[in-house]
């Protein structure tokens, strides 16, 4: 069950990372267009507005990725603790009932 959750988290993180790459590419493309002197004032304003919107999406995706990574590390720590507890219980069992 835990493995399925971790797998889904990884898929979501990969999706967000891809979205970030696409958004960064879009920002670069818009900035290149804005450097062109052949734009009309209207087109320049549209591109600047689009750039602000894309940057906002980029900030949101970065925050989401940060939160997903935090959740992923929490899940890993829980799994590691569970494994440690299992080994501890098993070791205690062997000490009490086993022939070591």
From TrEMBL:
Record bears the keyword GTP-binding: no
Superkingdom: Eukaryota
Coiled coil regions, renumbered to chain: 37-74
Membrane topology: Single-pass membrane protein
Membrane-traversing stretches: 76-96
Listed PANTHER family: COILED-COIL DOMAIN-CONTAINING PROTEIN 167
Keyword list, A-Z: Coiled coil, Membrane, Transmembrane, Transmembrane helix
Localization: Membrane
CC annotations in GO: membrane
UniProt cross-references to InterPro entries, sorted A to Z: CC167
Designated name of the protein: Coiled-coil domain-containing protein 167
UniProt entry tagged with the keyword Transmembrane: yes
């Amino acid at each position: 069950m835990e493995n399925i959750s971790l797998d889904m988290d990884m898929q979501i993180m990969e999706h967000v990372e891809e979205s970030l790459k696409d958004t960064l590419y879009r920002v670069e493309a818009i900035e290149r267009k804005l450097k062109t002197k052949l734009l009309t004032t209207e087109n320049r304003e549209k591109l600047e507005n689009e750039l602000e919107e894309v940057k906002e999406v980029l900030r949101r995706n970065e925050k989401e990725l940060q939160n997903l990574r935090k959740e992923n590390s929490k899940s890993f720590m829980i799994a590691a603790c569970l494994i440690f507890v299992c080994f501890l219980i098993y070791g205690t069992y062997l000490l009490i009932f086993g022939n070591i």
